[in-house]
Predict the 3D structure of the following.
Amino acid sequence: MFLGFFCLLFLASAANAQGLVANVDRTTVSVDETLTLSVRYSGSTNGQPDFSLLSEHFEILNQQQNSQFNSINGRIESFTQWTMVIIPKREGKLLIPSFKYKGEISDAIEISVNASAPLPAGVKDVVFMETEISDTSVYVQEQVRLSYRFYYSVNVESLERPDMIIDGAIVEALDETSYRRNIAGVNYNVAEFNYALFPQTSGTIDIPSQRWTAKLVQNARRSVFGLQGGRYELKRVDTDQIILQIQPKPSAFPSNATWLPSSNLVLEEKWNKDPDSFKVGEPITRSVVLKAEGLTASQLPDIVGESGDPTLKFYPDQPILMDNKDTKLFASQRTETLAIVVSEGGEVTIPAIRIPWWDTKTDSLKYAELPQRRFIVAASDKVSQSQASKDSAIQQVANEDPFQGPVLARESTAPSSPFNTLVSLVSSLLAVLFLYLWVSARRKLSLLGGAQSDTNKTLQKTIQSEKRAWRDFSSACEKNELSLVRERLLYWANIRWPVNKIYSLSDFSRTIRSEDVSMQLEFLDAALYSKQNEREWKAKELKGAIQNALKNDDKANQASSLKPLYG
């Protein structure tokens, strides 16, 4: 009975609901080698696809069916998988056809079938080794694939192999695979072990020969005591020694850039919403992905640099590194996600990204690029509404009806005689003149007093509005509700400084002119838009910095008659 690690290893592709997916473990084989075909259907089954079309180009040596039912969050999922070991009937480009089942159709798969490989040394033995290297002359840090194939035509109980350690190179295990091969009429099972080597220095690297030991099972025999007995045989096989020539980094590659020898490297970007909808103070998330073949994720450099614009701030998360591998190579990617916040309206530019890499297929310098992007940034809806509410409140206070003076009633006296009439007329004229002068003086005093009273009322209402706004801001700071802290801070600031247009934290920083406050505003920005905080920041620190700045301002303006609001 074969060991578990000699069983066929293949990748099962995840199928969509009610989908039919075909998958093979290898797409290039020799005419005397087997490959494994897997066909998977997601959903309930009561039959199977018609596999008869396979017989045109392949012979089915073995077929198995496996069905599973899973319950995920109370939802039942099921799938059925058919696994077949097949062998090509001839050389050339052969097609595994599409299969149809319950209205679903799988993709056809092209298989390259080569002529039989030359007989390796030691083919007459029941076990032997084969060593293969993808290239013997490569650049420093370029991936080299090393494959060891263990052939056996008898039962193997175990296989001992030494650890893969090579001086001057980092060794990473790739996926293993197993299949069968017919050599000179003898069927061999093949266990293939693959490694990715990354040379770290230029010059020569020696991959030494290794000795592997196989424990073979011989035919069982019956002992004299009537018990089943058996015996084992140890076989030692050696791998080939290989010398690698490692070339240094080409002089044409930029000296200040991270060295990236790869067969393919690309840059991609994603936005959580249309970047044309940028608004002041509102974050937009951008994800930039660097994908490479033949490199590990640890070799990939930082992608996004500084913004280069003081009104454009980047708040990055921790980068996500991923390594994927198959039987041939490493495929890696680095994802950097950042919140982008603009502090002022107008045109902003997202800088271009340009990463040099060395194409190992064409042996030439290439660049992976994302072009620069320009956007027109609008004012935030929240800030605009806050400003409109503030303007309306102040305008209402300023438009109070002016003081109206008293309405005076005048009485007339009828004359009783000519003399008396003359006296009365003179007296009336004098009284009217005196009354006119008296009323004029009183009216001027009343108007002056009314204007002063109206100014005081407006001032008091403004102070009360500012006090309420400060209390709301203080409450948000105590609760450490950061988005509310920002909104109420801007609302209060627009009441205190109605002449200024304070739409953002940058506007507020320029208005209050305090280094301590500016530093706390940066902490607020970082806490709002970045998931990666270097410390636990509290909004009360911002409130305290503003209080100190206002107290210092009061000391510099002793003539102010306003009582302190923020002590």
Confidence is low (pLDDT under 50) at residues 1-18, 220-230, 383-417, 447-452. The two ends are 85 Å apart (CA to CA). DSSP finds six helices and 32 strands in the chain.
